[in-house]
Specification:
alpha+beta, Rossmann fold, Dna Ligase, domain 1, five-stranded antiparallel beta sheet, four-stranded parallel beta sheet, 16 strands
Length: 348
């Protein structure tokens, strides 16, 4: 059995689920937006042994999650509480209790995760992933993340007049912001960073961006001709029309990508690079649950098949290769708790 945490609005769910079921795999989809009112969990201990009985009720069907061998952490949604709960304190209590129950269930599952929720959550933090990218041998831009206006001014002075971009930590549907080049007339507005931290980075010159999608040891790279758009700072502004094609990643960069995945403890990741005119590949970020269909549809790269192969292999009882960190003393320490729920969908 394969458990998928997602929802019907996720366009990546349908092709993966369809292909898995066509191969004979049982798939159970947990939409956390239906929890705890419409969806129920049961964790029961008796005198028989250490492993509890794990049950998940979806509508009128009860699933034995001890039979689950693989799980895909894809798009967990915010819980939906009972409408009769109107008191703010009561709603907070109920939400936290619901989270504790579900997180406890996840922790008890004997499955191969793509990705493990706790490692996924940690790897999604941009300050952390930049450090790990450098430790993996990848080139990263000069960067400052701050809500201190003086630190921001100092960073810009250190740039010596060279172009600087600024961007948000998260790209959410309800509050999406493209990456922007800082204009001269915006220097007088740096006090506004006190409202919330901002990411400042040196502008990386180049005509080509890369989207590198990794599943285990399989690396699919796509070349994105961002210079052929009206806004080459952020190709997402013209995502539907920007030209793309398959790309052969240099072996040195490919090895760095695999090392980064090991350090982060991820099986799946979507990584963004830009290629400088001299050929240097500059790492921007990794999205542990990033989209891939827009790449696959335009380039023909078999990413869905690779992803399904990984889940199918885990469901047959063989843990997916490199699903946990290897040889990384930092990766097993200080792993955070699983996220309670994602309030909105990350974009790309």
């Amino acid at each position: 059995m394969i458990l998928i945490e997602s929802h019907d609005g996720d366009d990546h769910l349908a092709p993966v689920r369809s292909e898995l079921e066509s191969r004979g795999h049982e798939v159970v989809v947990l939409d956390t937006a239906r929890y705890p009112v419409e969806t129920a969990i049961a964790i029961s201990y008796d005198d028989a042994g250490a492993q509890p009985d794990l049950r998940l009720r979806l509508g009128g069907t009860v699933h034995d999650l001890n039979a689950c061998t693989a799980a895909w952490w894809r798009r967990a949604q915010a819980f939906t509480l009972h409408p009769e709960l109107t008191d703010a304190e009561a709603r907070t209590f109920a939400y936290n209790e619901a989270a504790e129950g579900l997180e406890g269930l996840r922790a008890l599952l004997k499955v191969s995760w793509i990705n493990d929720p706790t490692r996924d959550a940690r790897a999604a933090h941009k300050p952390y992933q930049l450090r790990e990218a450098r430790r993996a041998g990848l080139t990263t831009p000069r960067t400052l993340m701050t809500n201190d206006p003086e630190a921001a001014r100092g960073f810009l002075e250190g740039q010596g007049g060279r172009p600087t971009v600024y961007k948000s930590f998260l790209a959410l549907e309800g509050a999406w912001r493209e990456t922007r080049v800082l204009r001269d007339d915006e220097h007088d507005r740096l006090d506004l960073v006190q409202v919330a931290p901002v990411i400042f980075q040196e502008y990386v010159d180049g005509d080509v961006d890369l989207r590198v999608t990794v599943v285990g040891d399989v690396v699919h790279a796509a070349k994105i001709h961002s210079a052929r758009t009206a806004y080459n700072t952020d190709y997402r502004m013209e995502l539907a029309t920007v030209p793309m094609e398959p790309y052969e990643l240099p072996e040195k960069v490919r090895r760095g990508v695999i090392r980064l995945m090991r350090r982060l403890g991820l099986v799946y990741g979507a990584i963004d690079f830009r290629v400088r005119p001299d050929g240097e590949h500059v790492f921007f970020e990794i999205n542990p649950s990033g989209q891939w269909l827009f790449i696959e549809e335009r380039t023909g790269l078999p990413i869905t098949r690779t992803f399904v192969d990984a889940l199918a292999s885990a469901d047959r009882g063989a843990p997916h290769p490199r699903s946990a960190p290897s040889g990384c003393p930092d990766c097993e320490q200080n792993v955070p708790r699983a996220p309670r729920a994602r309030e909105a969908e990350p974009v790309v």
